[in-house]
């Protein structure tokens, strides 16, 4: 627990440093005037994408602006570099002390979603949510409660335009994002909301049931090999419910932030699932087990939600 607390603090500090570094992406330079007016020097701000914007002619104000930006950028680079090293050190200690037990593939997937700035469009739902709760509470669920060979990602169809823009920015498809983690992922031909890798680990992408102008059916990109998301009962309630996030640790020590459901929402949803008469009895029993386990954690270990 002591190691996890220290590792989490370093991870969260690195998140802040990344946000600060994002604010000073690109650069500034002094643009000299034409040969006919060499003294007409302008301060230009460049974006990470290559765009440029004039901030005005050289003056005490723009000189101060340039100096302040340069100082902020240098500070952000140095701070991020130091925290990168700190996080790497904690990941080695996490592995040595066996802090984590989340499958490494799950953490790698969440890291890739964060790297591509796609994580904001998804929530982890289902069994893997338990990892977020147990790390936040400082407990361990019985291994039978968390054992699973698939992860469910709930996609927010309401943000489909922003999602498409973000996906285009990284010049890939959703299945392409998964293949950055494991090249063997492929969308199943008979179940096109599911991708499976060579080790039979599955990623399911769910959406709310069609409402209003929601398009349906819907593929996540123009790539013909990409996911067709599936409608999930009561998924709209899950999208509108309070969220929950926690730093989780993989078996190899790597860390990622998981965005999932509030524990109370998870319990309510699992109890509803366990009440369905047409659900597989084995799954109904597991739904009940998970609901009871998370409720116990809420009652005894987690702060009030």
Shape: globular
Radius of gyration, rounded? 23 Å
Low-confidence stretches: none
Sheet of most strands: 6 strands, mixed
The first-to-last residue Cα distance is 22 Å
Report the portion of residues in β strands. Answer: 15-25%
Give the overall pLDDT as a whole number.
94
The residue fraction in helices comes out at 40-55%
| Content-based structural category | alpha+beta
How many helices? The count is 10
Compressed to H and E, one letter per element, the order equals HEEEHHEHHEHHEEEEHEEHH
The count of strands amounts to 11
Describe it for me?
The chain is an alpha+beta fold. Helices cover 46% and strands 19% of the residues. The chain has helices at residues 2-23, 60-96, 104-115, 129-137, 143-146, 160-169, 174-181, 235-240, 263-274, 281-300, and strands at 27-31, 42-46, 52-57, 122-125, 150-155, 186-188, 191-196, 202-208, 230-232, 243-249, 255-261. Strands 4, 5, 6, 7, 8 and 9 form a six-stranded mixed sheet that branches. It is globular.
């Amino acid at each position: 627990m002591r190691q996890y607390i220290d590792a989490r603090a370093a991870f969260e500090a690195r998140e802040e440093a990344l946000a600060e570094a994002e604010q000073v992406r690109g650069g500034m330079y002094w643009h000299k005037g034409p040969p006919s007016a060499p003294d007409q020097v302008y301060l230009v701000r460049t974006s990470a994408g290559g765009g440029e914007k004039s901030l005005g002619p050289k003056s005490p104000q723009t000189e101060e602006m340039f100096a302040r930006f340069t100082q902020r950028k240098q500070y952000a680079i140095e701070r991020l570099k130091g925290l990168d090293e700190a996080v790497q050190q904690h990941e080695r200690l996490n592995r040595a002390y066996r802090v984590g037990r989340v499958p490494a593939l799950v953490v790698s997937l969440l890291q890739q979603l964060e790297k591509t700035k796609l994580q904001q469009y998804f929530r982890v739902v289902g069994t893997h949510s338990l990892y977020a709760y147990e790390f936040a509470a400082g407990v361990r669920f019985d291994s039978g409660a968390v054992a699973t060979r698939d992860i469910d990602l709930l996609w927010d169809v309401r943000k489909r335009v922003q999602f498409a823009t973000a996906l285009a920015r990284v010049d890939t498809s959703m299945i392409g994002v998964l293949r950055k983690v494991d090249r063997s992922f492929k969308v199943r031909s008979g179940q096109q909301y599911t991708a499976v890798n060579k080790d039979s680990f599955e990623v399911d992408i769910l959406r709310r049931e069609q409402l209003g102008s929601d398009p349906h059916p819907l593929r996540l990109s123009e790539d013909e090999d990409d996911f067709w998301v599936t409608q999930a009962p009561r998924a709209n309630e899950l999208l509108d419910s309070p969220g929950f996030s926690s730093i989780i640790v993989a078996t190899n020590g790597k860390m990622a932030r998981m965005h999932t459901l509030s524990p109370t929402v998870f319990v309510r949803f699992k109890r509803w699932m366990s009440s369905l008469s047409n659900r597989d009895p084995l799954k109904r029993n597991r739904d009940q087990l998970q609901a009871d386990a998370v409720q116990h954690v809420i009652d005894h270990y987690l702060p009030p939600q």
